[in-house]
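F.,

This is the one I mentioned.
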């Protein structure tokens, strides 16, 4: 339909592509920062049938960059509101909004096959990997994307033609060794992580045995004496937990908490002189002295209420060595409440008031409270507690604003970056739809004003990938009437080779273990939306992944419980790789009598275990580094101060 409204789009795209788009069915997953921009783009470009899916509701903090939302829409479904806002931009297209999680079982492979193309506008690895797998299984082209501050990336993915999202392992999110967090912090982030995970958990979380983390640390070979001290400290938390929950504590609970964590616990740590031989020991804090503005330091030269900015040296008795630091420079915008540098006394007052507010919430029935960057009480508490701890350890303090950013793992979202990436997604989507495969590129938006965009030709699939090298097929069945054997025999047909069968990481059968063969898929918890992997025992043929879907609505009630694919899948021979051959799962552990779900052995299918052995290629590493990202091979790799974690 040619209207004045679409005249420009038609002129740019040409009549053929314009007509093709009018009949294109597209799935857009995510209606956040990238998703809102992208929806506007594909509506104006004229993608005829758009399904827009998002699980979330609109938050006030989304309004600065998600321009399809207004103040009145806060708390409404993102998908619904975005669809309503964008639909009037082009009356020739249709938008179907879905307020749902893309991982729900009704969005199975058959459902994905109903689309010509899928566009991801997601913010987490788990959902991205899920959509990647579904698109590989459904053979539907996918455009993957992401932004982090000024950086962005668009990646077109198509089974057998390009690398898939899982062909290259992603960097592991950074974790810190337990002892750094619990007794020897040296950076503000260590104190922030301590407050938001450990301290909040101990005081306001579930009353659980804190020992398991320490057992682990002990196994990892961390300092045994230190762990014994940390264990004692954990038991002592019981008393303060009770005080926080008792209406009779009359406000004394905050002081009690303070005394325990900033005085007693620190004194206990100081006893371990070995620990402080090569490190600056912490200084216990005195509640009353700080409150009165007269904290007592070693030479008692200064008793001002002054923010400590980390240059302090403490002696082995835990006393600060005389000179107090100068007041930290206030930034120009310091009048903004959150960006003001807090003095030691400010931090103490904030600690007391936020502890009281959180205690009141526990007493009025909230069972547990965990850190949430948008929950003022918890943010105040984490700001104050981490700054007090930093003070004790001679580490620079942070403003409430900085703590929010660091504790919330926030990388500032920039509307312009999202807009550029959303434009690039459409360009790659057009290449995919036109099948101009030689024009496809991975596009990087980078922080280089002279070369803001770089393009990389696509890599071929990784032969050892556990996701896109599988041969996928669909099985329509009634899982309550179909047995494991029906599926395996049905799919293999005449082919009598020896196989093992997995659902995700669970082994369901192998050549020497057939106890589950007569069990129904339902009883094995293999239901709609899941996959059965049929793995060749000799490692000669690629794995067959069977996607489980339901029978069609018009299937006769007394008809066969399953409809096999036609033709049956015939996987290719495995490509030779230079990787070590896959080892078979340990046999002895596979023998089980009538296992139920909990009893089924969790072992990765061969192909998947191979995948775990793949390390990132040098090119990938360089590419990541050019983008300002650091790839962690090992969770314990040390990171520089200025590195922000993303998953
Ligand atoms: N499994 C999922 N199913 C459906 N939608 C998802 C899923 N996971 C994430 N999303 C959606 O993807 C969108 C990602 O958008 P974005 O990165 O802008 O995040 P946001 O939540 O809007 O903003 P912020 O995280 O910065 O507060 C969000 O709207 C989120 O609800
Ligand atoms: Zn892959």
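My design for it:
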């Amino acid at each position: 339909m040619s209207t004045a409204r679409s005249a420009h789009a038609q002129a740019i795209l040409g009549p053929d592509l314009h007509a093709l788009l009018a009949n294109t069915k597209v799935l857009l997953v995510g209606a956040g920062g990238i998703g809102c921009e992208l929806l506007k783009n594909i509506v104006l470009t004229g993608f005829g049938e758009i399904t827009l899916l998002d699980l979330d509701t609109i938050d006030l903090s989304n309004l600065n960059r998600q321009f399809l939302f207004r103040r009145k829409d806060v708390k409404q479904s993102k998908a619904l509101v975005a669809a309503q806002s964008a639909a009037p931009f082009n009356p020739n297209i249709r938008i179907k909004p879905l307020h749902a999680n893309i991982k729900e079982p009704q969005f199975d492979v058959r459902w994905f096959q109903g689309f010509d193309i899928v566009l991801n506008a997601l913010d987490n690895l788990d959902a991205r990997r899920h959509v990647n797998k579904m698109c590989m299984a459904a053979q539907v082209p996918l455009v993957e994307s992401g932004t982090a501050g000024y950086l962005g990336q668009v990646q077109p993915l198509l089974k057998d033609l390009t690398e898939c999202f899982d062909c290259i392992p992603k960097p592991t999110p950074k974790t810190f060794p337990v002892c750094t967090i619990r007794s020897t912090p040296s950076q503000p982030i260590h104190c922030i992580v301590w407050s938001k995970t450990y301290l909040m958990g101990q005081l306001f979380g579930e009353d659980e045995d804190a020992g398991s983390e320490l057992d682990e640390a002990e196994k990892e070979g961390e300092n045994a004496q230190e762990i014994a001290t940390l264990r004692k400290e954990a038991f002592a938390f019981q008393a303060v937990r009770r005080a926080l929950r008792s209406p009779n504590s009359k406000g004394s609970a905050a002081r009690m908490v303070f005394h325990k964590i900033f005085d007693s616990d620190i004194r206990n740590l100081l006893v371990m002189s070995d620990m402080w031989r090569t490190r600056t020991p912490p200084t216990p804090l005195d509640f009353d002295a700080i409150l009165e503005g007269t904290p007592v330091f070693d030479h008692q030269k200064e008793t001002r209420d002054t923010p400590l900015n980390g240059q302090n040296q403490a002696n082995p008795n835990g006393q600060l060595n005389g000179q107090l630091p100068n007041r930290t420079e206030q930034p120009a915008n310091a009048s903004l409440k959150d960006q003001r540098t807090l003095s030691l006394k400010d931090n103490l007052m904030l600690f007391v008031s936020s502890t009281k507010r959180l205690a009141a919430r526990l007493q009025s029935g909230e069972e547990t409270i965990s850190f949430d960057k948008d929950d003022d009480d918890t943010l105040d508490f984490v700001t104050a507690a981490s700054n007090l701890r930093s003070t004790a350890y001679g580490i620079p303090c942070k403003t409430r604003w900085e703590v929010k950013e660091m504790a919330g793992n926030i990388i500032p979202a920039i509307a312009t970056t999202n807009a550029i990436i959303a434009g690039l997604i459409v360009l790659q989507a057009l290449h995919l739809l036109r099948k101009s495969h030689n024009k496809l590129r991975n596009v990087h938006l980078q922080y280089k004003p002279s070369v803001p965009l770089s393009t990389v030709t696509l890599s071929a699939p990784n032969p050892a990938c556990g996701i896109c090298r599988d041969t996928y097929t669909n099985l329509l069945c009634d899982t309550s009437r179909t047995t494991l054997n029906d599926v395996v025999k049905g799919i293999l047909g005449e082919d009598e080779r020896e196989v093992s069968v997995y659902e995700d990481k669970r082994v369901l059968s192998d050549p020497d273990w057939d106890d589950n063969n007569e069990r129904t898929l339902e009883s094995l918890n293999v239901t709609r939306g899941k996959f059965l992997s049929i793995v060749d025992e000799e490692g000669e043929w690629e794995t067959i992944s069977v996607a489980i879907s339901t029978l069609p609505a018009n299937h006769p009630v007394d008809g066969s419980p399953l409809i096999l694919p036609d033709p049956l899948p015939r996987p290719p021979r495995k490509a030779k790789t230079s990787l070590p051959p896959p080892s078979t799962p340990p046999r002895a552990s596979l023998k089980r009598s009538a296992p139920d779900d909990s009893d089924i052995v969790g072992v990765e299918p061969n192909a998947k275990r191979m995948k775990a052995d793949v390390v990132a290629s040098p090119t990938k590493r360089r590419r990541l580094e050019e983008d300002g990202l650091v790839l962690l091979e090992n969770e314990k790799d040390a990171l520089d101060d200025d590195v922000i974690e993303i998953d």
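Residues 297-330, 579-602, 604-647 have pLDDT under 50 and may be disordered.

Talk soon.
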